[in-house]
Amino acid sequence: MLQSVYEWITPDHRDDNDGQREALMQSVSEDLSLSKMLVRVVYEKGYQTREAMEEYLNKATGFHDPFLFHDMDKAVQRLATAIEDYENILIYGDYDADGISATTIFYETLESMGANVQYYLPNRFDDGYGPNEDVYAYYIKQGVQLILTCDNGVAGHEAIAYAKRQGVDVIVTDHHEIGDSLPDAYAIVHPRHPEGHYPFGDLAGAGVALKVASALLGETPTDLLDVAAIGTVADLVSLTGENRMIVSLGLEQMRHTERLGLQTFFDKESISAHQIDEQTIGFILGPRLNAWGVR
Fold first, then answer.
1. Closest Cα to residue 232, out of 259, 207, 200?
2. More confident residue, 52 or 208
3. Element (H or E) spanning 118, and its range?
4. Coil, strand or helix: which one is 287?
């Protein structure tokens, strides 16, 4: 009889290995006080021993404290009150890939917390860039009680002043250049706010939205890193510091995405999981999202 040259793995062995892997990820998750989803992303990235995972995660979890942003406390408290009281919240986004990504982050976060929330993505030609007083007026007449901007707002003096006169608070989250003065908003969350102390100023709008979501939830929402990566790459911000971390972890998550829209897009474009990288966002996905803004 010929001696087998293969070491056959039985289903029982596979089950044992699966159990050991899950136990390892659970242990690392608890020891480092991180979500198991983030640990799983790192494991699937190839860091499959405790030492390798901990070394990578100790670097990868270098996300700065979101409460270092100016007005972050104020913004989070106001949003928490709006969620608790079931106020009508409007997310006022932007029409490019970064604005769409930031809007998605806010909408999914607030909806998951039980908020009464809706969103508006402006039309480049009809609404222009940034807060539009006519759009604000329409939604305020429909009962909106709190407006949350994303990827816009630091130049929206008139529309924000109008909302305030109507008794409606506006929370601005933005990353664009700040002018000579800031609007009279309830709170302004910006990585380069002149009175802030945030150590990384190059976040995209989606990155700022991710930090607000982190402050609201008490941890980085790892299930939104893929969305944040889209906005970060598409907006051509510096891929250093937190941006590099967002994109690295976000791309890994995107390769295993459960988002039907992304799955459908990758299938239609014949993009396999191992092909997904920053160029997939920069040259294929991002331009298609940006094209929506000139509809």
1. 207
2. 208
3. strand 116-120
4. helix
